[in-house]
Amino acid sequence: MSLASLRSSTVGDWQACGDCFYSRELLHDMVWEDVDLDTKRVCMAPFGGPIATMRDEQAMVMVTSSQSVQPVVRIFTAA
């Protein structure tokens, strides 16, 4: 069975990674305001634990006078 045929079948949500396949299941809707993960470094705890974010120093970000230039770690949880 080819990878192209898998994508069009009922298991099309699975992604190949080497010899293994992985799928993603939505467990919780995270409703966060003003969080842009494109400019953040993200670290997640296992088993649905908290998520920590901080600004990615490698990413280009416009800094305004109301923003701190100090690193800020924000913690999110689904609880």
TrEMBL record:
GO terms for cellular component: endosome; HOPS complex; lysosomal membrane. Transmembrane segments: none annotated. It holds the Pfam family Vps16_N. GO terms for biological process: endosomal transport; intracellular protein transport; vacuole fusion, non-autophagic. Residues 12-78 form the Vps16 N-terminal domain. It comes from the Eukaryota. One of its GO terms (molecular function) is actin binding. This is Vps16 N-terminal domain-containing protein. It comes from Haematococcus lacustris.
